[in-house]
Write a structure and sequence with these properties.
The chain folds into two domains: 320 residues, no CATH class; 123 residues, no CATH class. 59% of the residues lie in helices and 8% in strands. A hairpin with a 2-residue loop joins strand 4 and strand 5. The radius of gyration is 25 Å and the shape is globular. This is Glycosyltransferase RgtA/B/C/D-like domain-containing protein. It is found in: Cell membrane. Keywords: Cell membrane, Glycosyltransferase, Membrane, Transferase, Transmembrane, Transmembrane helix.
């Protein structure tokens, strides 16, 4: 008992004497307390669908987030809270891993600033609340850097093996993890001191192991005509090759990054990026080995994606891996005054965010929202009672179909019902011929909800697959007594898996 009491007292003393840890715990407790009030996001439902349909990989991403959600729901049960809790736990492990990594580069004072910088960001809150491949990616990215640091700077050879495993698991989370191997090679090429490691078998063993760990993703792609790789690359390559300048994309990316990082941290990123690039290009000065290591895993991702923003819409989460070493670098530069401003702005953002979660003050004109999905499922079940022997489908890539699948006992289909590509819904092995001659309820979200009227028309594709289509009264979802979401509903009769007509 005395040992236990002494341990608890030491932990209390550590927290009391370390304001940084107190701030981190404060932010994390705040996030944890918000979890029960978070509704289901479409991304949560879609990657939960991954976990319920286990596969070596998936159409739009590798499967790590799906595996994690499957494990947590097997242990803690099927619930929205379980999914959010999984995200929270994995992101908390990322924070802890970041602290360990940053301790290799920073003094105690700068380390404390860096961990507060990380914990205060909005991107950590998003990862804690929303299931995306970035949740495990950030964890395995950070663990990879810890292992590579140990292997390179402490010359612990077994960490080359562990680093290879971690890099492979990062790729099994999201394809952008390939930038880990690129960063490693770039560091070795530009480092005068460690360039000789390019001749070391341990480096190449590490890279081979990382490739071996990614084998399930490659094998799934091989089995499916490399569908996932093609999806992630071909359309984007074509868009970039068009080279159309778009100020909207550029300033939109700046706005997103300032929101995710909080403005102070974003501006620090820009400042030190400019400083190091200027030194390299104008003065041909290479930073010290440890700083170069951090830059090698920051520049390709942050500067690389940012350079695309004038000609391509870069998603807000693509730069997230660069934040890990970027925040460590920021910890070297930021002073106490700027840190206080960062924390104050962050607190304001988080308070506003919590008010939106708790009271839904501002309607969101998008399907990317956490409200209304459970109510939609209940209303859809009622419609099925008045229209028996019907299946349900939607046409918005995955959002409505995935959310209804989460809340309903029976299978809900996507736009592959009417011959359109439907992301991983195309790879679930559904035999659509079993639906032959059945009637269906087609649910169509009105993202820009303005009134309660019927839509009045519908996609002509429905006529190609159904004998008759009749619009029903729209489903109106009320949140806090206000009409907040609207879904058009169509009763479709006599489904034919093969198009009735291709001329309509």
């Amino acid at each position: 008992m005395n040992l236990r009491t002494n341990t608890l007292n030491k932990i209390k003393t550590l927290i009391t004497n370390n304001k940084a840890i107190s701030w981190v715990l404060g932010f994390q407790i705040f996030r944890l307390l918000l979890l029960p009030f978070m509704g289901l996001m479409p991304q949560d439902a879609y990657y939960y669908l991954y976990g319920q349909n286990l596969s070596l990989s998936y159409f739009d991403h590798p499967g790590m987030i799906g595996y994690i959600l499957r494990i947590f729901t097997e242990i803690f049960g099927h619930s929205i809270f379980t999914i959010k809790f999984a995200d929270f736990v994995i992101t908390s492990l990322t924070i802890f891993s970041f602290y360990k990594l940053a301790s290799y580069f920073l003094s105690k004072q700068k380390l404390q600033r860096a961990i507060v910088l990380l914990a205060s960001t909005i991107f950590v809150s998003i990862l804690s609340f929303n299931s995306t491949p970035d949740v495990p990616l950030l964890l395995f990215w950070t663990l990879s850097l810890i292992c590579l640091y140990k292997a390179i700077f402490e010359e612990k050879k077994w960490f080359w093996i562990l680093g290879g495993i971690a890099m492979g698991l990062a790729f099994d989370s999201k394809y952008t993890a390939l930038l880990l191997q690129i960063g490693l090679i770039a560091f070795l090429v530009f480092s005068n001191k460690y360039r000789k490691l390019l001749l070391s078998p341990w480096v190449w063993i590490s890279l081979i192991i990382s490739a071996a760990v990614t084998f399930p993703v490659w094998y799934w792609n091989y089995q499916n005509d490399f569908a996932s790789f093609m999806f992630q690359s071909s359309d984007r390559t074509n868009s970039i090759s068009e080279f159309k300048i778009s100020p909207k994309n550029f300033f939109g990316a700046i706005g997103h990054q300032m929101f995710l990082l909080v403005p102070v941290l974003f501006l620090v990123f820009i400042t030190f990026t400019y400083k190091y690039i200027k030194r390299a290009l104008l003065k041909f000065k290479i930073p010290t080995a440890k700083t170069l290591f951090l830059l090698a895993f920051f520049i390709p991702t942050f500067v690389g994606f940012f350079s695309l923003t004038p000609i391509y819409w870069v998603k807000l989460n693509w730069m997230m891996p660069s934040y890990i070493t970027g925040i460590i670098l920021a910890g070297m530069f930021i002073n106490k005054k700027l840190l206080k401003i960062q924390v104050v702005i962050s607190i304001v953002f988080h308070v506003l965010f919590s008010l939106q979660i708790l009271f839904y003050l501002v309607p969101i004109k998008s399907d990317d929202t956490w409200v209304g999905w459970k109510e939609l499922a209940l209303e859809t079940k009622k419609l099925q009672e008045t229209h028996p022997n019907t299946f349900v489908f939607s046409d918005d890539n995955y959002k409505t179909s995935a959310c209804l699948n989460f809340f309903m006992d029976e299978k809900v289909y996507a736009q592959n019902i009417i011959g359109l590509p439907a992301l991983h819904f195309d790879y679930l092995g559904d035999d659509l011929s079993t639906l032959n001659t059945k009637n269906a309820l087609f649910i169509d979200s009105d993202k820009r909800f303005k009134n309660s009227n019927k839509k009045g028309d519908y996609s002509t594709l429905l006529d190609n697959y159904f004998e008759k289509v009749t619009e029903l009264t729209p489903i109106i979802i009320k949140i806090n007594g206000k009409e907040s979401r609207k879904f058009w509903v169509f009763y479709c009769e006599n489904y034919q898996p093969n198009p009735l007509s291709t001329d309509k």
